[in-house]
Write the structure tokens for this entry.
Amino acid sequence: MNEQFRPVRTLTVPSEDLLDALEPLPDGFRAGVWDLVGEPSGLTYGEIDAVVLPYAAGNDWGEALGRVPNLRMIQAQTTGYDGLPELAGPGVAVASAAGVHAAGTAELALTLMLASLRGVDDAVRNAQTGTWGSRRYRGLADSRVLMVGVGGIGSAIARRLEPFEVELTRVGSRARTDEHGLVHGVDELAELAATADVLVVITPLNEQTRHLIGRDVLAALPDGALVVNVARGAVVDTDALTAEVVSGRLSAALDVVDPEPLPADHPLWKAPNAIITPHVGGNTEAFVRRIRKLLKEQVDRLARGEEPMNLVLRGPWA
């Protein structure tokens, strides 16, 4: 740690249950409760070093954080951190909750694939009318799966795909070889899409990945291909995807959309070849246990004067 910065000795969490999860606190460390809506309890604004953000969509906490004159770090409860560096401002570190949501998001990615490829959505609709709609569906076995994103959640998805006997091709920010084999670069994406049965998106949202899955990539996918997005909605061009899905050429299974929430009159809602879940990928009971464990470990590190885990913007630890 850079010694010109004082250690982090105080932190707020957005709820009493998270405060309880931090007990017992390390010697000399103090914690309070602040949901960034009301006033902090247990600490004054001037005493707060670090803030754990609420688990909620949106980055509308700028005004609240502006009341903290000595803020050194913000801790997200999400894996994604788009918008948080701008929210933090200069000199403030940002840490993500990488790893906490990997299992939940990966299991939803598999659920969306299987539900769409095995016609579970059709079966649910047919049940409303008592229709016995037996037909042959593609299925996941022997499918060519193209996955964009090779981080922690991407790796969790890849592990869960192994028993399903698919042909998996992975794409990262640049071409390379890792411990699992070849990773293609994004410059190959449109070419690779031309032979994919399933396109899975699990890459972070940043300026390089915004609308990465655009008209050219979607147009390259074969007729009948499935697009699964469990990353961030804006990684995919919504207008381009909607045109392909509404036409019936492609199917979609989406946990994230752009905008969120998707307007009630948006045509994707009524598309029979689209499944939409309301951004719940990592929001399982496992999340509760795992975020408590991460925050406890983070507080212990901070109390020891060590660099925090999962830094995505280094701030004082540069």
